[in-house]
């Protein structure tokens, strides 16, 4: 998939934004064809060199950019030539979805296996043991803690897990 097609996808835009942040987004959103130096990118995008370097290293850590070093024979200085590898984005997103699925599954089990109490005044939630330690009174305001039904939350997590498993082509019963 071409850079331009990838970058028009809002999911990929959000993914890149989460990786590099707002200061690095111009770097991620403007990948040049071929190799480019960090100085050239900073000048072309009118950005601070440190912001460009930070974004490039984040992309590198996520297998979305590579570099090669050249040493200037006269000065001994190293020049880094960067290449963007956005063909790896779909695979990275899939890995993120698997991590999300695992975390969501763990949270769902936590919600299913614990009893919660809520202070309706302060909107603070307590596990049963904490509520018992506080004699079922909110430590902030002294209001009684009410038993909390978290079935809607668990159902929402079930639905989201079903969606993720459909997207990943995972048979939940397997």
Anisotropy-based shape: elongated
Mean pLDDT, as a whole number?
89
Strand order of the biggest β-sheet: 1-3-2
Strand content: 15-25%
Write down how many β-strands occur, each being a DSSP E stretch of 2 or more residues. 6
Supply the helix-strand structural class: alpha+beta
Description of the molecule:
With 174 residues, the protein is an alpha+beta fold. It contains seven helices and six strands; from the N terminus they run ααβααββαββαβα. The chain has helices spanning 3-8, 10-29, 38-45, 49-61, 89-112, 128-133, 151-167; strands at residues 36-37, 65-71, 78-84, 116-119, 124-127, 146-148. A three-stranded antiparallel beta sheet has the order 1-3-2. The protein has a three-stranded antiparallel beta sheet with strand order 5-4-6. The mean pLDDT is 89.
